[in-house]
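> agent: user asked for a holo structure of the chain below bound to flavin-adenine dinucleotide. Plan: (1) validate sequence alphabet, (2) canonicalize SMILES, (3) run complex prediction with ligand conditioning, (4) return tokens. Step 1... ok. Step 2... ok. Step 3 dispatched.
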Amino acid sequence: MISISEIQKIFKGRITLNEPLARFTTFRIGGVADYFVEPVDIDDVVNIVKYAADHGIPHYVMGNGSNILISDEGIRGVVINLETGFNYLRHENDMIISGAGVKIAKFVDFCIQNSYAGVEMLAGIPATVGGALIMNAGAYGGETADHVTEVKVIRNGKLRTLSKEDCGFVYRSSNLKNTVILEATFKLSTGNKEEVSQKRKELILSRNQAQPVEVPNAGCMFKNPKDNKAAILIDQCGLKGTKFGGAMVSTKHANFIVNYDNATAQDVVELVKIVKNTVHQKTGIDLEMEVKLIGFEEVTI
Ligand SMILES: Cc1cc2nc3c(=O)[nH]c(=O)nc-3n(C[C@H](O)[C@H](O)[C@H](O)COP(=O)(O)OP(=O)(O)OC[C@H]3O[C@@H](n4cnc5c(N)ncnc54)[C@H](O)[C@@H]3O)c2cc1C
């Protein structure tokens, strides 16, 4: 293990050893990170990524932890959190510039307060701007990529400005993997503040009625198979309410697994196996995970 003082020679932000990660995830599950670092600027990000590579230590960027399941053993390596240094929003010449660590709710609110429309449907997604970009998160007919003009990233140790086309946005994915996303620029159309605000309110209400937002979870567990809905398949297989340890298939929305009673990551993995096997046996369809498994040695589900 490398000492903090060693890393501090090249890094200005906060560094914590053995940081418990559960509280940085919406699932409230996961072990500790060897190194948890909070860069304050671009130099810090470049330096820590290079330092980790030079020392053979893997690095991992965490957004709001709303689409991941971290293992009970945690993450061996450097976890980079951008919420300190990349939590800014600016309005410049009809463009909105957002740091990657900004939460989507704050980003949407900033856009509405500046009388812009077009991102209000994203408001209830519990992501950071960086996480929403890499996943091209979307809801109610809108996607994060819709209004992006350019994205600043670190790729291969260098700062690059990518055009929207360079980002390869497709449905719930992009080619931004293997980058650290730092900042994005958005161009939106103007809108009536009150009307857009009202629309945001209605969409959040509709989301809260459909999803188990009151219990920790990581969003939809499985991708929708072609021409099918994972939630409908899981429901039709009678799996709502099925439990393993502290994890349960939500009774409100069958594609959500909820941490209803101090679930471990292993509880969730076992429940995922039950869901997948049952759906396969009863329908012949193989469900594919949407939530990413992080820090697991070997897990075949
Ligand atoms: C209640 C609930 C509702 C949800 N509803 C929706 C929905 O309506 N639509 C939808 O699309 N998704 C939804 N999700 C899923 C989730 O919010 C999205 O996938 C979101 O984009 C994840 O963003 P994040 O910041 O939490 O990223 P994380 O979960 O922290 O990370 C996801 C991936 O992105 C990478 N990453 C994150 N930030 C960066 C960065 N700055 N640079 C490089 N890589 C990065 C991580 O390494 C990881 O691989 C929901 C989740 C929950 C819990």
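> agent: step 4 complete. Summary for user: The CA atoms of residues 211 and 253 lie 6 Å apart. The first strand starts at residue 14 and ends at 20.
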